[in-house]
Write a structure and sequence with these properties.
Number of helices: 17
Oligomer: single chain
Strand content: under 5%
Strand order of the largest sheet: 1-2
Helix content: 40-55%
Order of helices and strands: HHHHHHHHHHHHHEHHHEH
Structural class: mainly alpha
């Protein structure tokens, strides 16, 4: 079953992308995968999620009438720390595994892709198809429905803040409802129907079965938690990626916010910022977003090296989330105050010619 689609996306993507000059041998070296680094990142990332979840469970079990005044705040703090990694357990981790750059083995990349997708209730099959198109036609309105510019966001709605620092029940309900619709074969939205076309019966069947696996698997696990007396594990693990989304939002929104559509230059539609090791670890180094789009076959653990090699041909990067968000909010104010405002990143002089590839810009 599908809903009526109002927008038609083009499929004949033929964009001549600008990519910064780089020596072929250097690029070949940067594209090499390192299984050890892949294992360290993946096991540490998963391990941190399960470790903070276990600590939250122990904190809950420690609450009693005699110590509630300090044990309850400790529980809330541990859930905040646990929930903070939650957004990165979804499409962020899945993203890099889908590029097949974490491990040399495609089978290992595929296995952990599914592990992360299950933990986070993620629609990895849709994302596989969607993200491939996003890379080919980044921020081109007639091709890319994954990132539609201009991006808008609110910082005034209380429900938004609830989801950032605690838990937004309506957002969780919407996610579960979406999985339910998919489990019943209902695909809604222009981009979803473009990426998962009704004519592709095999992909539709796999997509439906994955949604059913999420519902049945998580429901059975939740029942086990309840009947064994460990119901709080539902909060920690079943829905452990559904709250405290603040850091995921702060890291993720700058990727393309305020930038330009229909331009064949990733320096004009993507943003790089640098940050300390912990957000970079959570975020799988996707703060190097221009570099990732230019050379997507370079593993996340080599993106900092890649930037150093081509940095003279790139816009300057803000350092830290605070500086990055100063820029984001300044751009947002200009958008709100000046109709028609356009933000142009500072470009190296020798490559500062901007061309559009579509009349729809």
């Amino acid at each position: 079953m599908t809903t009526q689609s109002n927008q038609t996306f083009q499929t004949d993507i033929a964009i001549s992308w600008y990519r910064s000059p780089i020596d072929a041998e250097v690029l070949a070296e940067l594209r090499k995968r390192n299984d050890l680094r892949g294992w360290v990142q993946t096991i540490s990332h998963l391990g941190l999620f399960f470790a903070t979840g276990a600590l939250s469970y122990l904190a809950f079990g420690n609450i009693n009438p005699a110590n509630w005044y300090w044990s309850t705040p400790l529980l809330l703090l541990s859930l905040f720390v646990h929930g903070t990694i939650g957004p990165f357990m979804g499409l962020i981790a899945i993203h890099e595994l889908q590029h097949h750059t974490v491990f040399n083995s495609r089978a290992l990349n595929g296995f952990f892709e599914k592990v992360y997708a299950y933990i986070s209730w993620s629609d990895y099959l849709w994302y596989q198809a969607s993200h491939a198109i996003h890379h080919q036609g980044t921020c081109h309105a007639e091709y890319d429905g994954e990132v539609r510019l201009p991006i808008r966001f609110s910082i005034r709605r209380w429900r938004v803040w609830l989801g950032w620092v605690a838990w937004n029940p309506s957002a969780t309900w919407q996610r579960l409802t979406l999985v339910w619709h998919h489990a019943n074969g209902r695909i809604r939205g222009d981009w979803y129907n473009h990426v998962l076309p009704q004519s592709n019966l095999s992909l539709r069947r796999k997509h439906r079965n994955w949604a059913r696996l999420l519902l049945i698997g998580h429901s059975l696990t939740a029942l086990v938690f309840v009947f064994t007396g460990h119901w709080f594990l539902i909060v920690v693990f079943t829905f452990g990626t559904f709250y405290c989304a603040w850091l995921g939002f702060l890291c993720g929104l700058p990727q393309h916010y305020g930038l330009n559509q229909n331009i064949p230059d990733f320096r004009q539609n993507s943003r790089t910022f640098t940050c300390s090791w912990l957000p970079a670890f959570y975020y799988w180094n996707m703060q190097y977003h221009i570099e990732h789009h230019m050379f997507p076959a370079v593993p996340f653990y080599h993106l900092a090296k890649l930037r150093r090699v081509i940095e003279s041909d790139l816009p300057p990067a803000t350092h830290g989330l605070l500086a990055t968000w100063r820029e984001i909010l300044a751009i947002r104010r200009n958008f709100l105050e000046q109709p028609g405002y356009r933000f142009i990143p500072e470009m190296p002089f020798q490559n500062n010619v901007i061309k559009t590839t579509s009349s729809s810009s």
